[in-house]
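FAQ

Q: What does a record look like?
A: Structure on top, sequence underneath. For example:
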């Protein structure tokens, strides 16, 4: 037999014997510094996956690698969560609980120490409204055409002009009082007793002031909420304001009782008809009393303190919001033209 035929057989035999004689990984002796684990005890409790991972790590390996130690029964965190914790801290960022952020803006709460009494009066007024006022207002809207209703609203708004004028004078606003007088004169004459409103077409502003607002401008700013039978939401300040405005009411000066009661009744029905659009909002309210109270108080505070000019605080407003007297504008034709010299002749 030639050597070329015997050589491959010898090589194959050597490889087979080498593989058969090589020790397996399980049979390989452990390193000298390795700790051999004791055989598992069948009576011992099963070890969870995190505990097994922690037990397989040498002591101090977690701290050396910078990873947080694994707590018992804790889910394994991903690498993305570890990166997040390394950058922003162990707890995820919660903007709601961030102490560095400012507190949320909260509307001022109504001063209502007589809430129990007011709620009883509110319940009474609600019964009267559902039984009498609301049905009359709905019938009024269905029967009376809109142009006629608009004329009735204009008529009663015009009758309030004397009350507004006197209170503007008491608040130290003579210019506004002069505008109110001019508006009253135009609507009473050209507007046929105020049924029409030509003053608005002439850009004459409509304002409404009462003695309650005057007391607020004078310094009575924080007044406790008070709901009156039949009159509805008020404050103690505005209740006294009703007494102060009573002598200036035009309808109260009518001598004939039948005419006076008819005018006052028509005014109440017209006012209630203007509030019909708010009924759907009230029907869906969780607390109708709180809704009416807070809405009325916010509107009332705006009427008293929203107009900064009535308090003489024009200096706190931006230039573009101040009136023409405190921020006069220079007409274009009065602006100086700079001298740029004689232009060169055209070539």
């Amino acid at each position: 037999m030639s050597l070329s035929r015997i050589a491959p057989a010898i090589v194959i035999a050597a490889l087979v014997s080498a593989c058969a004689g090589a020790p397996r990984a399980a049979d390989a002796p452990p390193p000298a510094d390795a700790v051999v684990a004791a055989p598992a005890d069948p009576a011992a409790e099963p070890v969870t996956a995190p505990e097994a991972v922690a037990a397989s790590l040498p002591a101090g390996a977690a701290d050396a690698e910078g990873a947080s130690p694994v707590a018992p029964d804790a889910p394994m965190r991903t690498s993305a969560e570890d990166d997040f914790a390394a950058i922003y801290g162990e707890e995820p960022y919660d903007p709601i609980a961030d102490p560095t952020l400012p507190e949320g803006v909260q509307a001022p709460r109504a001063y209502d120490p007589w809430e129990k009494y007011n709620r009883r009066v509110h319940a009474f007024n609600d019964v009267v409204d559902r039984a009498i006022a609301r049905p009359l207002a709905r019938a009024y809207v269905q029967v009376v055409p809109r142009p006629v209703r608009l004329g009735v609203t204009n008529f009663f708004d015009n009758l309030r002009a004397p009350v507004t004028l006197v209170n503007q004078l008491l608040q130290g606003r003579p210019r506004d009082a002069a505008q109110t007088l001019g508006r009253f004169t135009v609507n009473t004459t050209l507007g046929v007793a105020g049924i029409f409103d030509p003053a608005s077409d002439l850009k004459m502003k409509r304002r409404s002031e009462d003695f309650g607002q005057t007391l607020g401008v004078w310094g009575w700013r924080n007044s406790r909420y008070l709901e009156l039978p039949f009159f509805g939401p008020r404050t103690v300040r505005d209740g006294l304001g009703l007494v102060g405005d009573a002598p200036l009411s035009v309808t109260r000066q009518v001598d004939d009782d039948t005419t006076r009661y008819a005018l006052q009744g028509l005014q109440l029905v017209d006012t209630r008809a203007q509030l019909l659009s708010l009924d759907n909002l009230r029907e869906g309210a969780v607390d109708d009393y709180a809704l009416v109270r807070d809405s009325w108080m916010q509107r009332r505070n705006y009427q008293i303190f929203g107009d900064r000019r009535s308090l003489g605080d024009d200096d706190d407003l931006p230039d573009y919001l101040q009136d023409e007297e405190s921020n006069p504008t220079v007409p274009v034709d009065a602006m100086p033209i700079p001298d740029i010299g004689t232009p060169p002749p055209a070539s």
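Q: Is there anything notable about this one?
A: The first strand starts at residue 225 and ends at 228.
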